[in-house]
Design brief:
The chain is of the alpha/beta class and about 230 residues long. The protein is built from twelve helices and six strands.
Length: about 230
């Protein structure tokens, strides 16, 4: 998603990490984590992609991911894919502890909440389902945003509802997905903001699509783009 549709998100994440003194490597051999196949029930295909992911990243010191859903796939569901394959499961267990979603890497590994960002804006934060429900990430991104100079953060109500994307769910159940997206943008517009911020590019794509179809002048930004702002 980032590589093909939202490269600015990846570049922003690198910018923030390098600003904090980290050396960042982008393995050009990398591909998808396998989540689309996994969620669609194609476990053999997902297993092949996951095995390749392990090959590419096995020697990495830390793997930082600008997506809660991809992080959850690697840290929670790779083990499920290899439940009957002890050698591969051992590789998964060795790797999983080094995989972190971007915001949690900043707050829990780098130990920073103020990265020197500035963005004059009024925004709300959307909790992606995987980040919130599987990874239990909620306060960290908000603490990071609280230190962004010039930014006013307003909570939408309700704040924890799904945007309706869900990967292939949005294709298989388009009407339901669209209804969920419309409910989400209703909550966004009631908050009176100019920008929606999230950890997940897929959520942002769904929300931006709904906002654009409704003709609303509200933009979407990934947390990394906000933190990279000066």
């Amino acid at each position: 998603m980032v590589d093909q549709l939202f490269p600015k998100i990846g570049l922003a994440m690198v910018s923030v990490l390098e600003r904090l003194g980290f050396q960042v490597d982008f393995p050009e051999a990398q591909t998808c984590c396998g989540q689309p196949a996994f969620n669609s029930g194609y476990r053999a295909e997902a297993r092949a992609v996951a095995r390749y992911f392990l090959d590419v990243y096995e020697s990495s010191e830390a793997i930082v991911v600008p997506s809660g859903s991809c992080t959850a796939m690697i840290t929670h569901h790779f083990a499920e894919l290899f439940a009957q394959d002890a050698p591969q499961r051992a590789r998964v267990e060795a790797l999983a502890g080094r995989v972190r979603e971007f915001s949690s890497f900043l707050t829990e590994v780098a130990g920073v909440e103020d990265v020197g960002a500035r963005l004059d804006d009024v925004a709300t934060f959307h909790d992606g389902c995987h980040a919130l429900r599987e990874l239990k990430i909620q306060s960290g991104p908000r603490r990071l945003l609280a230190h962004v100079r010039g930014l006013e953060l307003r909570e939408m109500q309700p704040s924890g509802e799904c945007c309706g994307f869900g990967g292939t769910f949005s294709v298989k159940f388009a009407e339901l997905s669209g209804a969920m997206a419309r409910a989400k943008i209703d909550a966004i517009t009631r908050s009176g903001v100019k920008t929606v911020i999230s950890l997940d590019p897929s959520c942002l794509m769904q929300i931006q699509g709904a906002l654009s179809r409704a003709g609303l002048p509200i933009r979407t930004l990934h947390l990394a783009e906000v933190l990279a702002s000066r």
